[in-house]
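Case study.
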Amino acid sequence: MTAEGTVTGGTCPACGEPVDAGDGFCESCGTELSPPVVSTGMPGYVLECPVCSVDPSTPPGGITADGYCESCGRKVPTGRDHAELDLGPLAGVTDRGLRHQRNEDAMALASAQTPFGPVAITVVCDGVSSSPRPDDASLAGARVAVQVLLAAARRDEDPAEASLAALHEAHEALRRLGTPSQAPSATYVSAVIDAAAVTLCWVGDSRAYWLAESGAIRLTTDDSVAEELVAQGSLTEAAALASPQAHVITGWLGADLAKPQPHLRRFEPPGPGVVLVCSDGLWNYRPEAADLAELALPAALTDPLGAAGTLLKFALDAGGMDNITVVLAPFPLARPQTLPRRTAQ
Amino acid sequence: MTQSGFTVDVDQNQYLPEGGRDVSAIVTVTSSADAGVPAAAAGTPASAEIIIIDCSGSMEYPHTKIAEARAATAAAIDVVRDGVWFSVIAGTNTAWPVFPPDGSMAIADASSRTAARQAVTGLRASGGTAIGQWLSLARRILGAYPAQLRHAILLTDGKNQHETPDQLQAALRECEGVFSCDCRGVGTDWEVGELRTISTALLGTVDIVPDPSGLAADFAAMMRSAMGKQVADVALRVWTPQHATLRFVKQVAPTVDDLTVRRTPSGPQAGDYPTGAWGPGESRDYHVGVEVNPAGVGQEMLAARISLVAGPPSAAEVLGQGLVRAIWTDDEALSTKINPLVAHYTGQAELADAIQEGLEARKQGNEEVATAKLGRAVALAHQSGNEDTAKLLAKVVDVVDVETGTVRLKKKVEDVDEMALDTRSTKTVRVKKAQS
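After joint prediction, the assembly is written out as follows.
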């Protein structure tokens, strides 16, 4: 994952001049001080085989340039298979899960300090497995969108307009990856959290929830066959999710769509709680907001990275059938960290 | 020889069901059409050619045999390229150099070719057949010359009667890796199995020349092919993971040739399988079968890394590489898909076995087994579009139903037809590659 340019100790990492905690850029040299972080993974592969290094019957071997263990032949994980990002006010984890060959989810996180208080931003994209290069699609979408949202937050622009603009830019990025017949595609959900509200924008079936002791609710609706059947009143949610069509999505980003039809929602939290943004690798196992709140709270209020890890472990223990991405942001927001950010493989 | 002179393509279904162990892949190796001339020290010929002519007494019966053999040798000499080392030896129950008569090799040019043709006209037939002796002499002569490509053409018309099979085997073992050898049997008094053993060990071809008058054209074609070879001593290096078993490595096109027992260890978890010399634009297919220790669903494993290498094992140059992969899935639509190339070549290998076993059973008088095996062969040849083999089979059996492989053994079969079918049983046809 990338965390270059992280501010340490109140001085610019590039020129050493003092900087303000909330500055987006160094006043002296212009270096971006709190750049967004994206779950791109380290270039290359892990250095030792996770199987052979603990198996006494196989001598540990090196890792080849194409990512196989020289001893047991297993493909070793890339950095993208599991990534954790922690910006302080919000943190997230994404994981390959147990049944997929690669992680086709991507997440991007950013934070900014504005005259009206801190802003936390996250984008989660889930590559559509039936499309070509879904992992490239999700990463491209998340990476482009978070930059648009962060730039808008720093300029104090309307988060709703910024959210639609970011989704549009993400869509354009995916269109550049493919053609209408070969269209890398992804779901998309963004959350911009400021002092007053949470602004959500999405297509597809990646979700956002509000989790609080006082009551938990789902903030997004899915663009999926299951959701449409429930909306028509022809099926209960449980029956719809059990149907083979449950995961057929009806909205996404990609070159096979001329114009996406995004959903937009502004939510004003009634009190303290946590915003959860996740891919279906998590919510498949606990679609109900109250159930997710039970798993995440109260830890998520004070330790979003730890709680994200707890939710990931829950999804893996439940079967890990899909890629899993969990981002948590406690509300009201903490001030963005300017001290070293915690990033881990 | 250029580093990028070869391509290695792997065709397989990489998906295995949960707990699946068997990985099967077809590896297609192709040398580029413009692979360079082999590297050789300045002034040193890159190739050395030897022609081995059977001069046993039976070559006089009919008298045209030895005459055609002389003419064929002359035709082959005409095709030897300028600057190539060459010589001709004769064999009976012993062997002796014909040209140059001192047991050296001549460098081909207009005058040495004329002298060689002249020497060959003096060949007379008398004596026995000890092929091991012939091969040993060829090895001693070729071994003294530092050519990259060392090749022999061997012609015989009879069985190896004047030495034991062990003596032939011992001679073959010494020749392996020194030179390659294409074998031709003229007439019908020679043993298919015997010549196949020699051509297999020495990485060459074997065929029947039923009529002596066909020898000259065949010899010239073989020599032309030998002159076209440009990269010597190429091996398939196969790496497999810990706890995996390499079940087999077979050449499956243009002919079936099981290389499994030809393995030479070449490093941790790796072994080399010889493929001989390659000419430009040549393409061959190999079938590799690996049994692996299953990993979990969703995991990927490298089941084999296939490298094409040239040069000594210690400092081999890698000419190309392909990966055989295994991915475990719970999606049955993926794991049950049969790769068409793997299926095709599995059928072609079974076809060769069915013919050889069927002919053997027929020889032993076991008509029931012979009918079943040759019937199966007829069906397989038909299904795979191997028309040449189907035609050869039709000379040995009467086909009642080609689809089910229902056949009747012919009452009277010409020796030449039976031997042609046996010799060419390993010839395979290729299929057009499916889009993957």
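Observations recorded in class. Chain A touches chain B at residues 51-52, 57-59, 64, 66, 68-75, 96-101 (CB under 8 Å). The first strand of chain A starts at residue 37 and ends at 38. We will return to this complex in the next lecture.
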